[in-house]
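C-alpha cells for chain A. Residues wanted.
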C-alpha cells in the first residue's frame, strides 16, 4: 500500500491494469484501494480520469482501445447491453430491466442492480480485458465495449458515478465524467442513436412476439435470461 502513496491517477490506473494482466491480485487490490481513497477524499479530479481514458482511446497508453468491429456489428448492441445487465449483481431474484424510447433518438435501459463500483468502472472503460469473474460471464468484455463504437454516445448513471462516451466517426472520447455525483439507485444506460437505428430497434421491441428482429428477438432474449 505504501508504495502507491503519492502516485498520480495515471500511475495508479496503469498499475491496476498491469497487475490484472499479470494475475497479481494483491497489487491490483492495493492500486484499487488507493484509487478509491483518492476518489472518495476528492484527491482525484474527474478530469484526471477523463484524460487517462482519452489517452487510452487515442492510443497513447500501453492499454490501447483495439477491437474488431466485424465480430460485433451494430445489430448486437441491444443484445450486448441486455447480457451485461443480466451479468450484474442483484440483491434479490426480482430483476427489473426497463427500456424507454425517448425523443431525439434516445433509448434508456435501466435495471435494479446494486450499481457500479470503482472497480467496475475501471473494467468497463479498460479495453482488452474484463473482470475475469466467471460467475458473471461477459461482464465488461469486448462485446459490451463494442457498443461504444455502434452508437453516437453512451452514458451511464450508477451509484455516485456518471460518465458519457462520445463516438465521433469511430474516434472515442470521454465527453464527461463525475465520480462523486448524487447517488442513483441501480444503473441507467442512455444511448444516443442514429435515427434509422433508433426506429429499427424500436420496431424490434414492438414486434418481438411477431417476427425475428435484427437487433432483438425472443430466442436470443430467452437465451440471455436462461444464462443468468
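Reply:
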Amino acid at each position: 500500500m505504501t508504495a502507491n502513496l503519492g502516485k498520480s491517477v495515471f500511475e495508479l490506473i496503469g498499475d491496476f491494469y498491469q497487475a490484472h494482466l499479470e494475475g497479481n491480485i494483491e497489487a491490483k487490490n492495493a492500486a484499487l484501494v488507493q484509487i478509491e481513497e483518492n476518489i472518495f477524499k476528492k484527491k482525484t479530479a474527474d478530469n484526471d480520469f477523463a484524460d487517462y481514458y482519452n489517452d487510452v482511446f487515442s492510443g497513447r497508453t500501453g492499454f490501447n482501445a483495439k477491437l474488431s468491429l466485424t465480430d460485433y456489428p451494430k445489430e448486437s448492441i441491444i443484445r450486448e447491453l441486455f447480457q451485461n445487465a443480466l451479468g450484474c449483481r442483484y440483491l434479490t431474484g426480482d430483476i427489473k430491466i426497463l427500456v424507454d424510447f425517448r425523443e431525439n433518438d434516445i433509448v434508456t435501459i435501466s435495471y435494479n442492480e446494486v450499481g457500479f463500483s470503482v472497480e467496475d468502472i475501471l473494467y468497463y472503460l479498460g479495453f482488452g480485458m474484463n473482470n475475469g469473474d466467471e460467475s458473471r460471464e461477459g461482464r465488461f468484455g469486448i462485446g459490451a465495449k463494442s457498443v461504444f463504437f455502434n452508437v453516437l454516445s453512451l452514458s451511464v448513471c450508477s451509484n455516485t458515478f456518471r460518465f458519457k462516451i462520445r463516438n465521433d466517426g469511430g474516434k472515442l472520447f470521454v465527453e464527461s465524467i463525475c465520480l462523486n455525483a448524487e447517488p442513483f439507485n441501480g444503473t441507467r444506460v442512455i444511448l444516443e442513436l442514429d435515427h434509422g437505428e433508433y426506429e429499427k430497434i424500436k420496431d424490434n421491441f414492438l414486434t418481438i412476439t411477431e417476427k425475428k428482429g435484427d437487433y432483438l428477438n425472443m430466442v436470443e432474449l430467452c437465451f440471455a435470461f436462461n444464462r443468468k
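Strands lie at 97-102, 106-111, 153-159, 161-168, 171-178, 184-192. The domain at 69-227 is CATH 3.30.565.10 (Heat Shock Protein 90).
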